[in-house]
Amino acid sequence: MAAKRSTPTIRLRRLAGQLRRLRDGTGLRREDVEERTGLHSTTLYRIETARARPQYRTLDMLLKLYEIPTDEQLRLKALYKQSAGEGWIQPWHEDLPEGYTAYISFEREARGLRHYSGTSVPGLLQTEDYARAVTRGVLRGATHDQAEDVVTARMGRQDVLSKEEPLEFWAVLDEAALLREVGGPDVMRAQLARLLEAAQAPNVTIQVIPFTAGAHPGMPGQFIVLDFEDPLDTDLIYVDGPAGEIFLESEADIKRFRADFDQLVAVARSPDDSMALIAGQERKFAHT
């Protein structure tokens, strides 16, 4: 059995970012820190990118090296203790790809999420039958159990839309996602009905980009923009493609993807017109 894997939390990511900024503020390179403390530069890189949680004595050593005031040290040490909490991974999710489990953790802690999808319905809005058909079609080499783990995880993720402080979710779909017959007409009809139902929630917005809109910034592939409650937590971009899961958090990348999403919203049909388009396609599948 594989060793249990933890995923980064927002608190660990916040701690990592602050440690990185504190080092930058001193003008020290990672190699300089290694020379002064003996902490390997690769280990420091992993700490500063939230790939590893530092030991307490390592954190204390770094804060003293950076000459951080006592009150700030206490705040960061409190954040360190909070960062020990694991991301949301149920036991049956341990065999999921590491990038996906990390994404699930961030999604659970996000305040808002903007998702563009060009070929399929976003996971947070999928029915179980649609999710199963997508998973089996995409993960051709997966075993039955592996595919079911993905479906179970996807269904479990959806409670972020209905929890006490629900996620603010804005989905923009290309019309192709409505027309692609995933799982057959009955599965598609139920899936489109699910979209119509989900759009009634005050925290969910769904728009569709019609084919008549022509070329648009989303054509290269799907992406997700996550934002968080705490202003210290910068937006996070998640891109999932054939090359695997990629997280982006540089200011330039965030600015570009936010602008792309705004452009997609502008070329998409309004939410009301999008619902009419979805309802019309649902009726077509009902008569197939």
> Between the first and last Cα atoms, what is the distance in angstroms?
46 Å
Mind telling me the CATH class of the largest domain?
Alpha Beta
* Radius of gyration from the alpha-carbon trace, in angstroms: 22 Å
The name of the CATH topology of the largest domain is Endonuclease, Chain A
Pfam families: DUF5753, HTH_31
GO molecular function: DNA binding
Domain HTH cro/C1-type: 19-73
Protein name: Helix-turn-helix protein
Q: How would you concisely characterize the structure shown here?
A:
It holds the Pfam family HTH_31. The chain is α/β, with parallel strands linked by helices.
Explain the layout of strands and helices.
Layout (H helix, E strand, L loop, with lengths): L9 H17 L3 H8 L3 H8 L7 H10 L4 H13 L15 H12 L2 E6 L10 H11 L5 H14 L10 E7 L1 H4 L5 H14 L5 E6 L13 E5 L8 E6 L2 E5 L2 H17 L3 H16 L2
Parallel strand pairs: 1-2, 2-3
Antiparallel strand pairs: 1-4, 4-5, 5-6
Helix pairs in contact: 1-5, 2-3, 7-8, 10-12
GO molecular function, one term: DNA binding
InterPro entries: Cro/C1-type_HTH (IPR001387), DUF5753 (IPR043917), Lambda_DNA-bd_dom_sf (IPR010982)
Pfam families: DUF5753 (PF19054), HTH_31 (PF13560)
